[in-house]
Amino acid sequence: MPENSLTVTDNRTGKVYSLPIEHGTIRAMDLRQIKTDPHDFGLLTYDPAFMNTCSCQSRITFIDGDAGILLYRGYPIEQLAEHSTFLETAYLLYRGSLPTREKLKMWVDGVTRHTILHENIRRFLGGFHYDAHPMGIFVATVSALSTFYQESKQIFDPEARRITFYRLVAKVPTIAAFAYRYSIGMPIAYPDNELSYTGNFLNMMFKGTEPRYRPDPVLERALEVLFILHADHEQNCSTSAMRVVGSAHTDPFTAIAAAAAALYGPLHGGANEAVLKMLNVIGSKDKIPEYIRRVKAGEVKLMGFGHRVYKNYDPRARIIKRTADEVFEVTGKNPLLDIALELERIALEDDYFVSRKLYPNVDFYSGIIYQAMGFPTEMFPVLFAMPRVAGWMSQWEEGLLDPEQKIARPRQIYLGAERRDYVPIEQREPALTGSMLP
Ligand code: CMC
């Protein structure tokens, strides 16, 4: 019997099977040979929410959730946050290694050249209601871009993929800033390609009547760090959406819209917005014990706490906490910080959170910084989505070029009605029609 294998006895038939173990996994398809008779479909696995299923092999991001480690292409997130820029990190994620100076220059030039949006997109934005959520605008507008760049459908052409990567990374800050300014009735500010990626984003967000916007270097760098931290996070909900939609060979603009739609949810990228709302509801430090009581009673969740993978302090939250101090030197302290710090202190001493290994995640402190920098709460999920585009595109391309991948198509356990005949409407008993609701 090979050492790296699992022996399974099917007690229904008494047959014994040997399943190879590779990288700590067995292949689900190896279970298919386990049948009660030749007509049996074969054994399947049942894994709601993919709690214990690897959907791909990846070489991009590594997380050790118990140790609180996050690596992009092998590089610790702490080192990238300290030394890298967002566009260099985007290159690293996409290409697999750090660029030379020359390659980085070409890469940055390539992205920067694509920051402008087609004027029809600006007109398209005018169709949204004045109080539209910027994340809704973001999802719709990214999807609409696919109609402007039809060559993005040539997904097996490396050059088309490269240009699409440039376009997406370059245009999402423009979309995000336009969506924000539209929502507050400000004239849009066009990109300034002399500025850095984050400096230009601040320009498009906050430029007033001054002839040229000069970003504060501390805030510009803080945003760079936040973008690096959010650039990828292996097979989370939105990345899985990107890979699943991409597996149907949908163009990347449309697939990114699907990924962003997943990120919009309050359990995922919408959590940073939910944290701010929660801190405002709590209002003051003396109200924290009552809020903790409600969390423990299952009435509310402690937003920004807990993670499917991290059962330790999220390393990104640790870096963000440090970045907050630098930002507050410039902006003045966000009063919500004191509530957040006290909330964290109390939670980390409480057995409910300790026993469940619930620690602050990336969203717990990011919103407090974004708010101090002047971003409205509704923009927070958009600020998460923008840098994640680099990760989504890298993960999408890896999946696309993986010869083992096919169109994603999970199985189900069917527990519904057995075959039955259609009943004419006049013969239907109320009991047969199920719910009383129309
Ligand atoms: N507040 C209170 N209890 C919690 C929380 C929380 N934030 N998170 C988990 N729990 C409890 C949960 O009720 C369960 O308790 P019990 O065993 O008694 O039923 C236990 O902890 C295990 O939780 P789970 O729901 O099985 O964990 P999960 O892996 O399915 O959910 C999560 C992960 C992130 C959706 C969840 O922790 C959560 O809803 N957190 C708040 C939302 C949030 O901050 N999301 C951002 C995640 S990080 C950014 C990203 O990558 O998206």
What are the defining features of this structure?
single chain, 438 residues, Citrate Synthase, domain 1, 2 domains, binds carboxymethyl coenzyme *A
CATH-level-4 superfamily name of the largest domain: Citrate Synthase, domain 1
**Reading side by side through the largest sheet, how are the strands ordered?**
3-4-5
How many DSSP-defined strands? 5
- Percent strand equals 5-15%
Parts with pLDDT < 50 across at least 5 consecutive residues: none
**CATH fold label of the largest domain:** Citrate Synthase, domain 1
Description:
The protein has 438 residues and is mostly helical. It folds into 2 domains: 5-45, no CATH class; 63-414, Citrate Synthase, domain 1 (Orthogonal Bundle), CATH 1.10.580.10. 48% of the residues lie in helices and 5% in strands. The protein contains 17 helices and 5 strands. It has helices spanning 77-83, 86-95, 101-112, 119-125, 134-148, 158-183, 197-206, 217-229, 237-246, 252-264, 271-282, 288-296, 315-331, 336-349, 351-355, 362-372, 380-400; strands at 5-10, 15-20, 61-64, 69-72, 75-76. The strands form 2 sheets. Strands 3-4-5 form a 3-stranded antiparallel beta sheet. It has a two-stranded antiparallel ribbon with strand order 1-2. Strand 4 (69-72) and strand 5 form a beta hairpin. Helix 5 (134-148) packs antiparallel against helix 10, helix 6 packs antiparallel against helix 17 (380-400) and helix 9 crosses helix 17 (380-400). The chain is globular and about 80 Å long. It starts with a strand and ends in a 38-residue tail after the last helix. The mean pLDDT is 94. Bound molecules: carboxymethyl coenzyme *A. Carboxymethyl coenzyme *A binds next to helix 16.
